[in-house]
Amino acid sequence: MLAVGRAGAFRVLSLAAPGVPAAFRPGTFVVASPGDDRLAARAWWIHRVDPASAFGPTIEVVVDPGSPSGAWFADLAVGTRIALTGPLGRPFTLPRQPVAALLVGEGHAVAPLLALAERLRARECPVTLLVGARDEKHLLAVREARRLVRQVVVVTEDGSVGHRGVVADHVGSLLASSSAGVLYTAGRPDAVRAVASIAASSDVPSQVALEVPMPCGTGLCHGCVVAVVGDDAVPRQVRACTEGPVLPGHRIDWEALP
Ligand code: FES
Q1: So which domain of life are we looking at (predicted)?
Q2: Per residue in 158-215, pLDDT tens?
Q3: Distance from the CA of 152 to the center of ligand 1, in angstroms?
Q4: How far does residue 225's CA lie from ligand 1's centre (Å)?
Q5: Looking at ligand 1, which atom is closest to the CA of residue 225?
Q6: Positive or negative CA dihedral for 139, 143, 149, 155?
Q7: Which ligand 1 atom is nearest residue 242's CA?
Q8: Please, what are the domains in the chain?
Q9: What's the rounded mean pLDDT across residues 91-114?
């Protein structure tokens, strides 16, 4: 571990990760093995990559010290060696033609969206980013996003910054005002379900990076199963770590998710 930075209530871990930046695509993740019998492996979305830093190829991941494993990792000393596997999982699919995109994330789930915004911008897609959090301390990457995308809309539950409320309150109007042809979101099923549903009811396709427990991250343990409906309309189960974590929103069986 090269550095631990602060981003409001979160910690941003900078890690030397040879080979990861070169294969990285937004939405992919790494699995960190703490080397401590008390903690399971932890999956982190890759937030940023730098293929050629002064320390070689590096990545950044966002950790919430308010969670048990997050506190453990955030307290590690710089220089600690962490076993990392990645990048893993299926990334966001990028449009072939320029199309307006709405990106929606709350709290640390904004982590995979910044690099996605960069790639969309490189494809000349006008990007609107809707960032939510319970309060100002839990807003992530707003300043960087303002330099990167056409429009950033901020929502906090306590109204300390931006609009008061939750992101779902603003998705419908932003889909309309931005003329978005695609919606990208990331987060826990309970957090992104309403967002994906609004996109569906607006006939806008969505790509959803699901945050579910991933005990192994490599397809072996079946601890990350997600119910989906296939192109053939047949219900089935997929593993979020190998067939996801990014899935088309209309394929996810939201009723079967926690
Ligand atoms: S996390 Fe083990 S199979 Fe997906």
Answers
A1: Bacteria
A2: 999 999 999 999 999 999 999 999 999 999 999 999 999 999 999 999 999 999 999 8
A3: 34
A4: 8
A5: 4
A6: positive
A7: 4
A8: 2-88 (2.40.30.10), 101-211 (3.40.50.80)
A9: 97
